[in-house]
């Protein structure tokens, strides 16, 4: 949903990035925190998931509290969030290989999130390049457009991957139940 907002918005400013990121982080954080609290067993998976949830909620609240903070703050908040939560997710996936059917998904999402942090950090802060669009209108590509667009691309890739992963996990569970019954 937020990937579509960024894709179809002509405004790729830092305030739009902060608001959309804030909404995403609060919602994802609430889901992660609730799922961690619902996990029956205590352990590393529960602790890491809970930590990711709390960090996400905090990052989202900060992002929504000061949407006019500007591009440097947005880059800092986004890279800190992506680096920390990406590492935690990657750790969880690598640690649970062979023991959890979700480990492959945790590794992918963790690596993708860590990659987001790296890509955002590689964008030069003062980048600005003028160009003429196909409609002969003069435009400017800025660091803000690149960072917000990268965040939108991350959400699009993540969304498609998680839908496919969820369906695959469901089908694998259904196939296992059919085999067990036969």
What is this entry, summarized?
This protein is mostly helical and 182 residues long. It is built from 6 helices and 2 strands. 76% of the residues lie in helices and 5% in strands.
Shape: elongated
Summarize the helix and strand pattern as letters: HHHHHEEH
Query: Major β-sheet, in short?
Result: 2 strands, antiparallel
Q: Going across the major beta sheet, what is the strand order?
A: 1-2
Task: Tell me the strand percentage band.
Answer: 5-15%
Residue share in helices?
over 70%
Query: What structural class results from the helix and strand content?
Result: mainly alpha
Distance between the termini: 41 Å
How many domains make up the coordinates?
Answer: 1
How many helical stretches? 6
Enumerate the spans where pLDDT stays under 50 for 5 or more consecutive residues.
none
Mean pLDDT: 89
Number of strands: 2
Report on the structure:
With 182 residues, this protein is mainly alpha-helical. The protein has one domain (2-181). It is built from 6 helices and 2 strands; from the N terminus they run αααααββα. It has helices at 2-8, 14-38, 44-65, 71-95, 103-122, 143-181; strands at 128-132, 138-142. The protein has a two-stranded antiparallel sheet with strand order 1-2. A hairpin with a 5-residue loop joins strand 1 (128-132) and strand 2. Helix 4 runs antiparallel to helix 5 (103-122). The radius of gyration is 19 Å and the shape is elongated. It starts with a helix and ends with a helix.
